[in-house]
Amino acid sequence: MLYSIFAGWIGANAAVKSKSRVAIDRSPIGPFQCGPGLCTRMAGISGGIAVAMNAYGAHFVLANADINDERKRAMTYAINHHFINCIGMALAGVGAHYPTLTASMFLISTVLFSVPSYLFAIRNDRRLRAVTPYGGVLAMLAWFSFVL
């Protein structure tokens, strides 16, 4: 009798524990949970754009003798940053405790760092260059968010 009560209690607790692990919403953003599938899709789309920008940069920016070295370096840094953030987005879905926060930080970092750098390299537009340091800092914070 005592064994059956004890076994039932252990079984009930085990079921509750396993249920609670699955049901935990670790997203600070509410219902917009970024699981492995969504993070992988975000990384895939961003990676495709990074490959396209790499091809454009190689054929039209880096190969153009009329474009100065500063703009060519900006294109190279933007592409590298973009690719590294794609890797971070993909890893966020499987390795981060707060995948939505981490993947969002990588995505926003890409927009804040790479887009102004692309605009500067391609169109010589310096208006948004002031926000690039914020994109770099956000990328650092996104990588640090893996240890939260």
TrEMBL record:
Highest taxon in the source lineage: Eukaryota
Compartmental location: Membrane
One Pfam family it belongs to: DUF423
Primary location group: membrane
Residues spanning the membrane: 42-62, 74-95, 101-121, 128-146
InterPro entries named among the record's database cross-references: DUF423
Protein's UniProt name: Uncharacterized protein
Natural source organism: Heterodera schachtii (Sugarbeet cyst nematode worm)
